[in-house]
Design goal:
This protein is an alpha/beta fold. It is 35% helix and 20% strand. It has a single domain (33-273), classed as Rossmann fold, CATH 3.40.50.11550.
Length: 284
């Protein structure tokens, strides 16, 4: 009965191929959820970015709780991803570990699942120190989408740790090595972004200095603003007027390397700052 045996074998082989094909289709939920990839038209132009791209780690030292700084940082990330298509890019935010656990799911589960999980976190329910603002929430969701549609070359890390300057810096360096990042963009409070400690400040070295000890080339930028309001924590955290010590007579958003900025290599500039309040409920 050799002909029967051959027919049976062919039939089983065909069934196996059909099942395997169905499984392959079924195992691609994340890809089926992918939205359009990021394009240059999605990125607002920011002058001066080419001057910082040669560095491995780029630190943006911010004032928390504004509308404009998270929006600008999102555009910086957008431009970096689009203009450097061969680079693997890690993006770091000053957020707690719950976010990092969500970020590690990117590429493994549908984008909508991660966006929903992050959007509904209790972290966003009050302003506290300003990192909990609606603008920061929108930035986080924006970066998740960028990473999801990047084809596996954009990664996120939430690096808040009990000592952010030392343990947070070590977490960033570890993730750089883990994902083989060519470039890392970091948004962090401006005192943490310094490359040398602030006079009369904490006795320990800031994050910028600790990151440099990892052998990476670093550029650190301090925010400069002509006027406005930010969420400033002094005796209490509140919306307060701010003014920049550096008025350079230029308007708009740009990055510029310059000497004489103690602790930093240059500035990122915004003309006006406004406070972004926290809001309960998911973003629509």
């Amino acid at each position: 009965m050799p002909s029967v045996r051959i027919l049976t074998t062919v039939t089983l082989f065909s069934i196996s191929l059909f099942i395997a094909g169905c499984a392959a289709v079924h195992e691609k939920p994340a890809a089926s959820q992918t939205s359009k990839k990021i394009a240059s038209s999605d990125c607002k132009t920011i002058l001066g970015l080419d001057s910082i791209y040669q560095k491995n780690i780029i630190l943006f030292g911010e004032l928390h709780g504004t509308n404009e700084i998270p929006r600008m940082f999102g555009n910086v990330a957008c431009n970096a991803i689009v203009s450097q298509p061969s680079k693997r890019i890690l993006i770091g935010l000053e957020l707690p570990g719950d976010f990092d656990r969500a970020f590690l799911k990117i590429g493994k589960v549908p984008e909508t699942q991660i966006l929903s999980e992050v959007d509904r976190m209790d972290f966003w329910r009050a302003m506290k120190d300003g990192r909990h603002s609606r603008a920061m929430r929108e930035l986080t969701l924006r970066l998740i989408s960028y990473a999801h549609t990047s084809g596996g070359r954009v990664f996120l890390i939430a690096f808040e740790r009990p000592n952010i300057d030392s343990i947070g810096a070590a977490a960033i360096l570890s993730r750089i090595e883990e994902v083989h990042a060519d470039q890392t963009l970091i948004l962090v409070g401006n005192n943490h972004a310094r490359k040398v400690r602030m006079p009369n400040g904490p006795a320990y070295p800031p994050m910028g200095e600790n990151l440099g000890r990892g052998g990476e080339s670093i550029v650190s930028l301090d925010g400069r603003f002509e006027a406005g309001r930010a969420w400033i924590c002094m005796s209490q955290c509140a919306a307060r007027p701010i003014s920049s010590p550096l008025h350079i007579g230029r308007d708009g958003e740009f990055v510029e390397l310059m000497p004489g900025i103690a602790g930093y290599d240059g500035i990122f500039h915004l003309s006006q700052l406004t406070v972004s309040d926290a809001e309960n409920g998911p973003i629509n």
